[in-house]
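Exercise: predict the fold of this chain.
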Amino acid sequence: MTTSHTLGRLLERLAHRVTKAAGGSWAFGVAGAVILLWAASGPLFHFSDTWQLVINTGTTIVTFLMVFLIQRSQNKDAQAIHLKLNEIVAALAGASNRLINVEDLTEREARTLHQHYERLVVIAKRDESLTQSHSVEEADSRHRLKKRAHETATVAAKRA
């Protein structure tokens, strides 16, 4: 193993542990206790500028580090969700494989795909069944077929 790989694994484990710890009740309790101790020490330090600087510096450092931990956690969660959704899309018969890794599309491509799904919503709202499913590719032709079948059945019922 290279040194950078070992360091990367060490930092990953450390970030994971700190993220878990910082998100727990104990972390909130410790943070609250620090604030109470700082506030209680105010009279001892005559509420000086240094006394205020201590809490400002401490909270700034903690906030700076937490931004990176939160971003790391969100990136990892988002990636896991994307992978799970990709697996579902890939496994479902009739699902559009264009949706796999849809998060990598440009904004223009995403808007175009969104417009296709807006059309699908319009078609789905015309259906009598709430459980009927459509793909973008099949929606228009299926809807026309169902409409013709319904009209044929209505005509046949009127004749009977």
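Check your answer against the key: The helical segments are 3-22, 25-41, 49-91, 107-126, 136-159.
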